[in-house]
Design goal:
With 97 residues, the protein is mainly alpha-helical. The protein contains 6 helices and no strands. Helix 2 packs parallel to helix 6 and helix 3 crosses helix 4 (60-68). The longest helix is centred in the first third of the chain and has 21 residues, at 3-23. It is globular and about 45 Å long. The protein starts with a helix and ends with a helix. The model has no long low-confidence stretch (mean pLDDT 94).
């Protein structure tokens, strides 16, 4: 497989991941962190870092809007729920600083 095709496939897979996450608003970021060690905010940060490595500047809020499909504050107001004590405890046990 050539480099261009690989990049296109990876980009398509990333877009599908974003679509999936936008369909699964019931899955909270803390759930993702507890199960997979990353969340939507991590994806936003990685997106911004990848842009910077290529000389492009995408600030934190713009990257979050790309990942969340809307402004982050709107997503939080519509979909984010308070983390339970169990979720918070799991996060603290498993966090990687």
């Amino acid at each position: 497989m050539d480099s261009q095709t690989r990049t296109e496939i990876e980009a398509a897979a990333f877009r599908r991941l974003l679509e999936h996450l936008s369909e699964r608003t019931d899955v909270q970021n803390i759930d993702l962190m507890n199960l997979a060690g990353f969340c939507r905010n991590c994806l936003s940060r990685w997106y911004s870092e990848a842009a910077a490595e290529r000389g492009e500047q995408i600030d934190k809020e713009a990257a979050r809007e790309i990942v969340y499909g809307m402004p982050y504050d709107d997503w939080k107001a519509q979909y984010q729920s308070e983390a339970s004590a169990d979720q918070q405890a799991s996060f603290e046990r498993n966090r990687h600083d």
